[in-house]
Amino acid sequence: MSNPPSHLEFDFPNMIQPVPDTAIFSEDGYYVWCGTMVRDAHGTCHLYYSRWKKEYGFEAWVTHSEIAYAVAQSPLGPFRHEGLALPPRGKEFWDGLCTHNPTVQCFDGRYYLYYTGNTGDGKNTQGLNWTHRNNQRIGVAVADDPGGPWQCFDKPLINTTPGGYDALCCNNPAVISRPDGGFLMIYKAVGDEGKMPFGGPVVHLAATSENPLGPFAKQPKPIFVKEGVTFPAEDPFIWRGDDCYWAIVKDMDGHFTGAGRSLALFESQSGFDWNLAKHPLVSSTTISRSDGTVQKLHALERPQIWFEHGRPAVLLCAADIDEKHTHTFNVQIPLKSPAPGA
Asked: What backbone torsions phi and psi does residue 221 show, to the nearest 5 degrees?
């Protein structure tokens, strides 16, 4: 994708526009999560997303999620389910029972679908299946066409490092090309110092590679951290301007925005050292609908941005309407162009 000029002033609350009904995507009988989108040369929009059967319960995202895709002629939908991008391929594979957290990029005419995968006992437990959670690793699939077929690999792209910040598991990948060549990944890392099976602390790490298929070299410094907080953020999405990187993360409890659970904006010159942006709040857990109503949600997370002519045009998020997980959906939130910076 092309990159937005770095002099733009990103003030997302003033960029966010009302959401039309066509931009709400859900599937009967499934929980839907983790939307990411690319548009092909013919103008068709391909939405990749995580889904798992409602009959298994919400916590089955960690055991039964699969990455599906839908298509539309507009980035604001309506989208039509088309098939599976990454179906289950067997518990003997590192990602063979569960794929989740997709994020798609196009580099030099090829499509790269980065994701979290795991395997385990396949049991649908009452709460979170911690064996599956702690087997989470990061992978990539590659295709010449966004409709597939996707080539997967028998080894993860990012594995755990004993004694490191990601000693227990790793997930939530975000990848972008670097202006001087090569690629930057930001991902969520979970250590093994905290009480098991959760572990912790939860931080983020950067990694670099000369090739989108890796290998990626991990950087030693944790990012998006908050002193005294063991789990401040997750769900990073990154992009860059001519001389600046940007990131949106889920702020777990308003540690960065002061707005409770929300989405926060960071910026960086290097991609390794990050600071809060001038306008740190991207969004609270509400969306405005085109009929004039405001919908308060239990969760609005997994942010991704789709760019048009180098400008942020759509903010994609996963949404959950209540604590009982009665209904989840992906939403494509239209954005107006950012104002020039001062």
From this structure: -95, 125
